[in-house]
Amino acid sequence: MFSRYKLFTGTRHRYLVIFLGIVIVLGIVFRFLELDRKVFWYDEVFTNLKSSGFTLSKIEPNFFDNKIITVPELLKYQRIKSDSTFKDTISSLMIDEPQHPPFYFLLARGWMSIFGSSITTSRFLPALLSLFSFPLMYGLALELFGSHFTALLATAFLSLSPIDIIYAQTARQYSLLTVFIIGSSYLLLKSIRLNSWLFWGLYSLTCALGLYTHPLFGLTMIAHSAYIVLLSTSSQSKKNTPRLVIKFLLALTITLILFSPWINILVSNLQSAINTTNWTKIPITSWDLIKYWILSFTSLFIDIDFGFNNPWTYLLRLPFGILIIVGLYQVCERTPRMNRQFILTSILVPFLILVLPDLLMGGRRSSITRYLIVCFPAIQLAVTYLFAIHINSGRFSFADGVHLWRGMLALCLTASLISCSLSAYSQTWWSKRISYWNPEVARLVNTVNSPYIVTDKGDNYTNFGEIISLSHLLDNDVKFILMSQQPKLSLIPRNSTIFVFQPSIFLQETLQQKGYQLNSLHKSGNLWKLSR
C-alpha cells in the first residue's frame, strides 16, 4: 500500500520546489490579509454571541419590543457577557443550537478573553488554526503516495485553495474541521501501516475532537468505516484483517464514548436542532443542485464568479472540473487498490450521504459548500497526484510532457492566486450568503447624519443576526427602532431620516395603513426609505 518515501533533490525539481515553497508562503499571507474587510456575516455574529455566553432564546423575546437601541448597545452582544463563564457558552449552545458542539466556541471564548472580540481578532483564530492543516496534509500525501515532492505539491494546493482561505478567514469552526478531517485520515493510514496502539489511540482522540468541532465530521468517520470494510475484503490483507477490524472498532467505540455526553445533549434538545436546520430541507431544482456542485468543487482551485446564472461563471470553471475528473481517473488507473479506495471513499461516501436525501426527499444539503468540506482534501489529493505523475514521468503525447504539465500547474495556481486576490480586497463574497448586501446597505445609511432604522423580527426570523451584522458596518450615531408584533409607530421621529430594513409584510402594511410611504433604496438588501 505504501511505497518507499522518495525525496526529490535533483536539479530537475529544485526550482519547482522553491516555487511551491513560495506558493505555500503566499497561502499563509492570504489567510491573514485584510481580515476585517469583509462583512461579519450572520453566522459569524452567532459565533461571537454563543462564545460570549449569550443565549438567544433568552434575549429575543424582549429584543423586538418597541424600543430604540444604538449601534454600540447592539455590539455588546459580540463581547463576552459580564459575569459569564465557559459554562454559559456550553449552556447557550445546548439550548439554542445543540447541533453545534462546543469545542470551537470554547476556543473562541478563551481567545476573546485574551485578545478581545474585534472582527480582526475573531477571524485571526480560525486563520491561525488553519495552519495546522499544512503539515497534516503533507503527512497524509506522504502516507498515500510515498513522495516528498507530491506531499509538498498537495500542501501547496491546500495553502492557496480559494475556498480553504475563505473559511480560514471566517469566524466559524470550518478551518478547524478541515484540520481534523486531514489529521484523522493521516492517523488512520499511519495506524494501519504501523499497526501501533499509540496511533490508534491518537486517531480515536482526533475523531472525538472532530465530532466536538462539528457533526459533519461524522461523515468522515463513515467514510473511514467504508474504507476499512473495503480493506478487509482485500486478498492482500486477509492475514491481518481481524486484528485491523478489531482495532478500528475499538477506536470507533472509544470515540463514541468520548462524544456520548454531547450525543445525550443533542437527543435531549433534538427539536431545537431540527428547528434551526429546517432550512436545509427547502427544495431546489436538480439543475441548481448541479450548478452548486460545480461551483463548490471547482472553488478549490478557482473562485471567480460572474453570477449564479451567468454561463461564463461555469465556462471559466470547466477546465478545473475536467482536471478533477481526470485526476480521479488517474488515481483509479495508476494507484494501488487500497490508495484509490481511500481517496474514493473519502469523496463519494460523504457526498452521497448529502446528495441522496436531496434527490429522493428534496432539500439543499449538498448545495451548501461548507457541508462538502469533508470531500475537499481527497479531491485536492487526486489533482495533486495527476500533476505529480506527469511532472515526474514526462510521459505524455506531446514532445515535452514535463514542461506542459508544469505550465498547466502554473496556470492552475495562477487562477487560485487571482481568485484569492479578488476575494481579499472585496467587502463581500458569495460565502456571506444572507449578509451579502449589508456593506452596500451600510454605505447608504452612513451617508446620513444620525438616521434611524426601523425593523422587526422579519418574515425569515433572521433579523436579530442581520442587524448586528449590519451594526459592525454602521456609524455609532445610527439608531434602530425595534418593532414588536404590535408596532408602536409613535417611536418614529418626525424630523429625522428614517430607513426601514428587512421589514415583515405585516410591518410594511401597518406603516402604509398609517400613511407612510416606503421607497425602495436597495432591493437586494431590502432597504427602504420611509416618508409621509
Can you put this structure into words, describing what you see?
The chain is mainly alpha-helical and 532 residues long. The chain folds into two domains: 11-32 and 98-433, no CATH class; 50-93 and 436-531, no CATH class. The protein contains 23 helices and six strands. Strands 1-3-2-4-6-5 form a six-stranded mixed beta sheet, with helices on both faces. Helix 2 packs across helix 6 (103-115), helix 7 packs parallel to helix 11 and helix 13 runs antiparallel to helix 14 (241-268). The termini are far apart. Mean pLDDT is 93; it is low at 394-399.
Low-confidence stretches: 394-399
Name the average pLDDT. Answer: 93
Structural class, by secondary structure, is mainly alpha
How many domains? The number is 2
What is the approximate shape?
A: globular
Strand order of the largest sheet: 1-3-2-4-6-5
Instruction: Give the tally of β-strands.
Output: 6
Q: DSSP strand (E) fraction?
A: 5-15%
Q: Portion of residues in helices? A: 55-70%
Ends: how far apart? Answer: 76 Å
What order do the SSEs take from the amino end to the carboxyl end, as H and E?
A: HHHEHHHHHHHHHHHHHHHHHHEHEEHEE
- Could you describe the largest sheet, including whether it forms a barrel? 6 strands, mixed
